[in-house]
Amino acid sequence: MKLKNIILSMATITTLATAADHNLYPNSYYLFVNYDNNSNESALGNTSSFDIRYNQNDIQFSNFSIDTLQYAMEYTPSAKYVDSGKTTTILKGGMNVLWYLDNPSPFSMYILGGAGLKYVNYQEDPQSIIDIYTNVAAGVEYNIRNDIAIVAEKKFTYEGSEKKTYTTSLGFRYSF
After folding, report:
1. Which of 26, 34, 53, 67 has the greatest number of beta carbons closer than 10 A?
2. Considering just the CA atoms, what is the radius of gyration of the chain in Å?
3. Cβ-based neighbours of 15, under 8 Å, separated by 6 or more
4. CATH code of the domain covering residue 159
5. pLDDT given for residue 4 in this prediction
6. Strands 68-80 and 87-101
7. What is the 3-state secondary structure (H, E, C) of 87-144?
8. Which domain holds residue 105?
9. What are the tens digits of pLDDT across the range 19-48?
10. pLDDT band at 63, cuts 50/70/90?
């Protein structure tokens, strides 16, 4: 019984010691809860949103050293306008590329950049609009196991000179 506990303990320590290798699995899903701090010019107040992302971890563009290709979908169910108090729904979809800063600890830091489309459903004219956005972010993953991580991220989104958003995100990653 004692030998079994020692072997299990050693296996756990070995798993945690190698946990920061994001290349162990070809695919990952992320689920985030976000707090969006909108610029005054955007006419929207600060909001909460939800984000789901899918990563292809085995992408290698040798000229650019890109580690991961990410597809992102963000949903804001109820964003309030600052001046009228009315609400709107926002849906974003885009593609990001990630660069991981590999290290031997359970923490993996990354930088991402990307672009996408933003759909806003207004209650006034025009009824809806589609905008193009770009974003850059930095984040850190704490790998609980090889396939599960807690993720924190800070993202800057740019939609033109008047619309800027700083997003703080906290979530989970599952790799398979």
Report:
1. 67
2. 19
3. 145, 146
4. 2.40.160.20
5. 64
6. antiparallel
7. EEEEEEEEEEEEEEECCCCCEEEEEEEEEEEEEEECCCCCCEEEEEEEEEEEEEEEEC
8. 2-175
9. 455 567 888 999 999 999 988 777 788 999
10. low
